[in-house]
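Risk register update: the risk of archive-format incompatibility is retired. Evidence:
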Amino acid sequence: MGHQISQARLEDRYYLQKVKLGEGSFGTVWRGVDRVTGQDVAIKQLDKAAMPRRGVREQDIEREIAVMQAVSHPNITKLLDSFDSPSSIYLALEYCNGGDFGDKVKERGLNLEESEAAEWTRQIISAIAALHLKCVVHRDIKPDNFMVSNGSLKLCDFGLAMFLPRGRLLTEKCGTPAFMSPEQHRLPRFSRGYTNLCDIWAAGVTMYMLMFGGRHPFLNSLQQLDETRLLQGSLDFSVAQGFFGFGLSDARYSEPARRLCRRLVEPDMAKRCSAEDIRGDPWLVANQRVAGRQAAPANRPRSAGTSSHAVKLGARINNEGAHTQQGCVDAQQRAQGSVTEPEAILSRKIAALEEQLKMQQEQNESQWEQLVLGKRAMQELVGEKDKITEWQRKSVASEGRSGSASPTVQRMSSTELRNSASKGGCTPQGSPLPVGTRCRYNSSSWSSWMPAVVQGFNESDVTYNLDVRQHARLENISPDPDASASEAWPPGTLVHYESSTVRHWLPSVIRSFNEAGDHSVEEGTYNLDVREFAQVDRMRPRHS
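Archived output:
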């Protein structure tokens, strides 16, 4: 191993208890005790034999150690020591008595107060800012990679972290897909690379999960990644959606909180803010002191022994924190004397209150705009339905006069549909897509759409057999955007259409396909009974 890992014996310094704190694919975390200080520690044991099977080299462990040694911060798990043996590598880490942060988020659910969410978000951003200050990118920010210790969050698991000089782009596609930024997902064909701002995106996704009790913004009900929404950075802040989804009272948390979340989940990397910029966000500043008093009792030590260790540990962390940028600022304020410190605090509070007042005014204006837009959307929906009714009336009248369908959009009776289907012309209403129909399948394994061809329909579980997937669910299938007129889904096919007007999936029927060459229409779209020129991304098949 490299020079960073000690050749001394682990047992000489730490007593390894038979208490397993966690287990991974090539390592186990045990609880231990420092023989010198008596403090509890976490001992991460890495199996050398299992590491190559997971694509991990000993150099990767040395890099992880180097990163952790380079950064010291109250919200980052401290590496105490490292040891090497013929079969294992041991990392002695700061012990966190509050457990996994991801579990705590789910445990609190929607009962988490906004001030507490602000304090947790502030600590997450502070940890990321400390890394970026040292030119380190983590690349796997998520709730499960934070631990809780005496009311504070501790960022851990630096297996993917690396030093990244400013101005350089990374092109290695790695991390947890649900927390990867758009520029990472677009690799390699549609992205030049990514920077440490991928951590800011992941922090925004994490903040959203804090707000909604662990609900992920880009995972559907089947826990599959909706890459279209992810690439757009589309966030839904409503707690419970009605049919029309316009309920203003259902919005989660205040507008300043939602605004910060949108700043973090900015799909354009060039517009995404840095960690240092985010630390000064008014919502974080305004909630910092109140939330700090509320969060501490939530993780009170359970025994006197643990309490004494926690006091020692807290003292050590505070001493280390004095070397950080925030610690330097605090030291400067203390050097100015006790008379000016209350004035500075009062000035910050006044500035934060003024900013809150400004944001409240903007929020009121935003709510009024939503009401106006909601009313306008309802009017457009009524007008759209009136157009459809009029179009159907004219189509029927045209058929009665000329005996042929309307030249713009063909309309067929149920009898004609059945007759045409028997000749291969179209699908009768209620029957599945014909064998050989081209479509797309949204693969959770590849986190993207892939071309597919229908091979059969399973009546028992209402799924399709595709050439790329058996028993594919309806919600993962949509028309092929590159299909020609002869390959398009036939008239009469039952589909669901995602209406942006009512923000709901509407049962619909395909009337016709708009093929290329006609410049008066949007080519590659479908005309439905509820909407003309419907985009394929908003269509899914339905069975009945």
